[in-house]
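Long-time lurker. I teach an intro course on protein structure, and each term I like to show students one example going from raw sequence to a predicted 3D structure in token notation. This year I'd like something fresh instead of my usual example. Would anyone be willing to generate the tokens for the chain below so I can use it in lecture? Attribution to the forum is fine with me.
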Amino acid sequence: MRISYVFLGAFLAIVQSAFAEVASPPVLEPLKQQAQAAQLSAEFLTRFSYKPVPLDDALSARIMDRFIQSLDPDHALFLQADIDRFMSDRNEIDDAIERKNLDIPFAIFNVYAKRVVDRMNFARDLLKQDFDFGAQENFSVLRDKAPWPQSEAESNELWRKRVKSDWLRLKLGGKTDAAIRETLDKRYANALQRAYKYKSDDVFQSFMNAYTTSTDPHTDYFGATASADFNIAMKLSLVGIGASLQERDDYTTIRELVPGGPAQLSGKLSVGDRITGVGQGKNGAIKEVVGTRLDEVVQMIRGKKGTVVRLDILPADAGADATHRIISLVRDKISLEKQAAQKAVLSVKVGEATRKIGVITLPAFYEDFEARRKGDKDYRSASRDVRKLLDELKQEKVDSVLIDMRNNGGGSLKEAIDLTGLFIGSGPVVQQRDSDGKVAVSSADFPAPVWTGPVGVLINRGSASASEIFAAAIQDYGRGVIVGEPSFGKGTVQTVVNLDEVVRNSKPEFGDLKVTIAQFFRINGGTTQLHGVTPDISLPSFSDPARFGETSYDNALPWAQIKPATYKPIGTITALLPTLQRRHEARVESNPDFQRLLEDIADVEAQRNKGVVSLNEAERRRELTAREIRMKSRAQAGDGANTGEDDGLRANERSLSADIAIENARKNAKDVLLDEAAAILADEADLQEGVVKAATGQSENTEGK
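-- Reply from a regular --
Happy to contribute to a lecture. Here you go:
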């Protein structure tokens, strides 16, 4: 799936000259190596992509549209006059890239940054007045296809409603007018200050995202920071101090300490402590970082293993004038265990019996490529971790294994193949067709399956790429039941190309390209492209297929089909599916948790289709009262799950302890879909046991269990 660089553009708009006295943000200019990197990328993409797209006027227009949309996705920032002015260069970007000239996107971004400053000051000025919450008016929350404001007056009216909506949410959350003014003023001020911190790398990353995704939805450009984050995600490790950081009121704040990391083992840091300065080595000068961008502070704290970093710490809850302390930590390798495969065992009643269902949650198909290349026999990978967990689950004598791949966006293709081998042993897993039309079959090569019992895969719209390869193979072999909603629909293969290596550059300047090089096909000959993997048993979802998934891209490859690979189904799940479906339908019909989930999904879909929220306080309070009554009835029925009341605050506007409490409550809330998937797996184990007994001559009424 595509990795996006996120800007503040979602909710920013403009006024022209009303705040001329406010200092303009810095004018950003392209660097020489950025223009070279863009030109190198163009050469590579037009020659070596799976479906090369010529860099011409047509592509130039798409790049321009995507770049502007990335900055102002809600069409609440630029005026139509700005857009008209930008469009005069709509067909010139291709020529500019070839000339190694990036003035066009940088000029657009500089206008963007100025509009951010203007509009945030306008929003803050609105806080000095009162709002009439008795008026009957609405605020549109879906503006990605709305026209840009035609005039300054129209933009002002749009932003009056936006600020009024923010105010009303806080008011309904129980905040006083004084507290609301303080909260929103700080919110808009923070957005204002971030506009002064943009750098040329931000502009270039955003522009290159627009360029690469205009050629293909899953082609990406990685600058230095994005490339480092990608490598960390694949290796599940980094070198640092082992602390999760968050920006709160200009301070870099400790949100979490990684168990076993240098920060936690030192005993010198606590959650809530604020980092005000960073120094390198035992004697290096400490550089103040108050007000510094979080990503820059993170880069200062990371470093080589065994080196020293010194931190100037302002203790949690201490005043700004309180005594600081300097601590020294030795950087070490930090394993990101929370992002690794994990297991749990659920007990599920089936008739009079209790089935133990092993659940393995796999967030991504990670693999430490570098360690594997160096011959490290203990290199970290998803399939290796899952194999260990399967061995543990066998020791715990589980009846079925459920692989939870919800929101698993993919990763290493090799890991998807090896993971499939854990359940089928050996055999074809996926077919790949390259740009020349050649088809290669990739197979698992295990002497025998690690797990031979009942298996299932839980997927959702966020399950993509490698997740779809695995789920499709399990389905095609009849090896297990696929449960959930149709997956993302990404049927393409990417590789990462280091541009510096391509041109034999001795120093890292040009970044990396993640390029689509092939399309993958199921062993049955079909592809998951666009269609995704269709589950055997469907579960409901909050996702919106029109806005999330391969079908939401206007330049996605079409669905296709090739010859099936030579393989033989090895499971009996197909014959059991009708019974599994009947049991599922009967169970959820009488399951109050499941029915409440359906109610919540219906509410979200209704609001989504409505596209607007009322700015009338009485109307909103009636909606709130109806929701509170529903939640109260749920509590009386024994549903103790977190109600998720909307306090109108953003994460960094609450106290850290309150925000962590909310996060933990969400993590610990009842997972209705997982529980139902486990029940389906319990049924699968029950039915397969009946098949075995029938085959051996033992009588068993499986449907009556």
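Some talking points for your students: The longest strand covers residues 512-521. The two ends are 42 Å apart (CA to CA).
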